[in-house]
Amino acid sequence: MEIYVCADLTPEQLQRLNASAGDATVHARTNRAQFEKSEVVFGNPPTDWLAECPDLKWIQLESVGFGEYDNSQWPALGNQITVTNLSGFFAEPVAQSILAGILGLYRGIDQVTELRHQERWLGEDLRKSFRTLNDAKVVLFGYGAINKRLAELLNPFRCDTQSFNSQWQEKDLDRALATADVVVSTVPDTPLTRDVFSKRRLALLPQQALFINFGRGSVVDEAALAGALTSGDLGGAVIDVTRDEPLPTGHPFWTCPNLILTQHSGGGTGDEMDLKVDVFIDNLKRYRGQHQLNGIVSFTRGY
Fold this sequence. Notes:
alpha/beta, Rossmann fold, 2 domains, 6-stranded parallel sheet, 5-stranded parallel sheet
């Protein structure tokens, strides 16, 4: 068996992978010819490489999202190749980033950081704008691993949480938004999630509400969100993902008020790649033993 590694591994990580590969041959970012002869791939290969890969059986992505492969040769390739992702992998760091963002806005951390750069002291005048998270009404749009973990982190604040899974109903969501203090979206990009938070839906939110997006940028009308923040019709936002990444120069998210932009880094940790290697090694053992792989993606379902 030949394994092709597309991920950027340190020599130590590659050595650990080699030690777990048994008699398999591991190719670390060599060339396309080696890729085309490989049975297993770890990492996210270029989409055009999938055109000529008769021996490829399994791809372990180093991401949760797989949108770049949605327009590849599926479903034809789906009969040949199993694709697994890192489903649930980022739940803990992302949930903590969301909580940090909410508290950052509620407790004015974004404001005082900017004031320090301006060398301005407002002191007592700041206090009246601060809030606490206690007893907040939180709408969780998407109820996968991230929002389930976030719900646990919100327990000490006695938040009233309402969750919406893939079976969500429009009238129920609209009703929940009308009284929400915080809305957290963690859904993938699918036909059912695109543009859910339109200008109309954002207008349903109370003026002091926060909108949080750590799923995919396609879920929200970015111009409408920036407009609501600028006009003061929305209390704040924490945005980890955007439609275009990196965020283009001149995009209103760079300058609109009360927005924390985390630049798709919300799931990051210093040992992230070590943990990804662990996931691959575990799944490789399952693959060799002909057991069910963890994290099999469905291109039809979209996650």
